[in-house]
Amino acid sequence: MSTRTSALDALIFGVDVQSGDIRGDAPSFALVAFTGESLDRDVVTFRKLRRLIQHDQPAIVATDNMYELAADKDALVHFLRELPSETKLVQVTGDERPEPLSRVASRHGVPYGKDPMQEAEAAARLAAANVGYEVSAFTNTTRIKVSRGRSTGKGGWSEDRFTRRIHGAVRTRTREVEATLKDVGLDFEKAVTEKYGGYSRAIFTVEGRPAEIPVTTHRSGDVRVEMERERRDGIEFRPLAQRRDHVLVGIDPGTTTGVAIVGLDGEVLDVLSTRTADTAAVIEWIIERGRPILVAADVTPMPETVEKFRRSFTAAAWEPTSDLPVDEKQHRTREEGYDNDHERDAMAAALFAYDAHEDQFDRIARKVPAPVDRGEVTARVLAGGETVEAVLDDLLADDDPEEEQTEHTERELTREEKRIKRLEAQVGRLQSHVEDLRETIATKNERLTEYETELSQARREERKEARERREITRVERDNERLKRELAAQKSTNEELADKLERLKDLWRIDHSNLADVAGGTDLVSVKPLSQFTKGAISETKDRYGLAKDDVIYLRDASGAGRSTAEALAATEPRVVLKHGTLSDAAEAVLFAHDIPVGDSTKVTIQEIDDLAVARESDVNAVIDAWETRAEKRQKEQQEAMIDRLISEHRAGHGESD
Fold first, then answer.
1. What is the helix (H) or strand (E) element at residue 573, kind and residue range?
2. Rounded to the nearest 5°, which phi and psi values hold at 219?
3. What are the distances in angstroms from CA 64 to CA 28, 49, 80, 134, 138?
């Protein structure tokens, strides 16, 4: 049974080491160019091989060992980077653990010989049969960089105009690349670095291979465009043929064809129903999902259309003893998903076929050792009628013990030929090294120029930002100063407004008083002090002022001494109205300054906050009462003084006698 869709029709290079080693000097390679119909053979150097790959751009470069073309992993990545975008490197012997080329060739019926040219041909034919693994070091993401094609440099008077022109050209080319990517519908991300007059660079991260992107690497005047694939963390192997598993296929023919794919473990892998696809398209769809070893129908006898599918795969056939009832098909597919009856019938056919062979599959699985492909054994037993033991003996048969120990005998070179060979190899290495150094120097010069330009631009921006920061700091300081001044003005305004409101309220105490005031009769303002202390006196002076002939009201007269009384007397009040007991010392000081003192309970005082008024008649009554007491007190003091003088006089005469 064929496990491949078809041989590739494109150009394929089969490569094997003819002499030498890639790690040594001047290796030569057997090269076979295979197109499916013709073969061209040649022996080439490694340099020529690389030139031919670049010139002919084969679809595949096939080898039995990828490290025959590269000394180590880094060299392999370098080799893969140099390949044309549509060229694959394929290792036909497997992935990380390759098999002997002779075994792979025998398995797939490809001619094999021990000569390097024959091995190169076998590698080419195997790759053409879709055998092997693609060696990949890159993802399907491509990075496109649009940047300056020349340095802005020092342009003197024209530097700004020159820089603006280059950055404008980069921006224009960036927009062209973006429009191109959008036109072809590719997904991408864009990151730009804006500079004076445009862009200094733009980087596109595109989901696609370079061959799928209609943008080329080039350098034109002021702009340079570079493309590079994103590298993987390691080396990845991808099979050329994705359909490796053996499967069972159920088919329901008709105007709408239903197809179901079931694995050897009984799992439904995929279903299809189509009215438009022809037989070839359905076969291709099946092959993309597995290698059929059995084709099943849900009716008996097997329809001719299903039989054609079976013959195309050389697969075994299964049909029920009688047409499957609808209820049984529904029951068998109850846990699976399907869109219509055609998919259900195809799925039921494949699942009933699996049920019929399940025990046989289990027996084969128990007998097949781990290294052997169970699907391959099952296919040969089921479709070919072979026994498990015969298939295993065939697959596990020892290879020719000498086939892997083949040595390539080379002609003994003369001394001059050896010297020429060494010199040619040395020249090749030196030339390659010189080219690499030139590329490195050019890249570093471009990078240095770019860094210098960026540094100059950064310095200009830094100076501009410094000026802006200084200006911002100055404005912020002015702003803070104005805020403080505004807050102080607001506070002053609030205090004045409160004071004005208190004064207004004071005049609105009652309408009769307002009429009295309006007539200019019998009201006098009173200035209260919360305590009889120097602090209270000073605070009242600051807020309202204390003037001569003011009426002072002490809300709490206790605790004052001589100095406090002296401070109050200095304001020369008209009268002091007290609440509480005044100390003798304070009362003496006030009496000495002829300041009337009276009890506040004798006067009707009306207060609002710190302002108050009293009736003039009450105040005069207090003053009159005090004057009466003061006159009596003065008389008592005079009498006491006269008595003291008489006593002192008498005492003086008594001593003289």
1. none
2. -135, 125
3. 16, 16, 16, 12, 21
Query: What's the burial of 291, exposed, middle or buried (CB within 10 Å: 0-12/13-18/19+)?
Result: buried
What six digits make up the tokens of 34?
A: 């295979």
CA nearest neighbour of 151 among 143, 142, 159, 140: 159
From CA 161, how far away is CA 220, in angstroms rounded?
A: 19
Provide φ and ψ at 248, rounded to 5°. Answer: -105, 140
Look at residue 20 and give its three-state secondary structure: coil
Angle between helices 388-395 and 341-367 (to 10 degrees): 70
Q: In this predicted model, what pLDDT tens digit does every residue of 460-470 receive, in sequence order? A: 888 999 999 99
For residue 98, CA distances in Å to 83, 87, 236 come to 23, 21, 14
Provide the pLDDT confidence category of residue 414 given band limits of 50, 70 and 90. Answer: low
Q: pLDDT band for position 299 (50/70/90)?
A: very high
Quote the pLDDT of residue 512.
38
Cis before 27? omega within 30: no
Q: 10 Å Cβ neighbour count for 341?
A: 15
Q: Give pTM, 2 decimals.
A: 0.41
Pairing of strands 246-252, 257-263: antiparallel
Q: Are 622 and 575 in contact (CB under 8 A)?
A: yes
Contact between 14 and 120 under an 8 Å Cβ cutoff? The reply is yes
DSSP-assigned letter for residue 60: E
611: nearest Cα among 524, 538, 548: 524
pLDDT, tens digit, 9 for 90 and up, residues 316-358:
999 999 999 999 999 999 988 888 999 999 999 999 999 999 9
Of 154, 113, 109, 137, residue with least CA distance to 3:
109
Look at the block and give the residue holding tokens 């029920």. Answer: 320
Across the beta sheet with 268-274, what order do the strands follow? 268-274, 257-263, 246-252, 291-296, 316-318
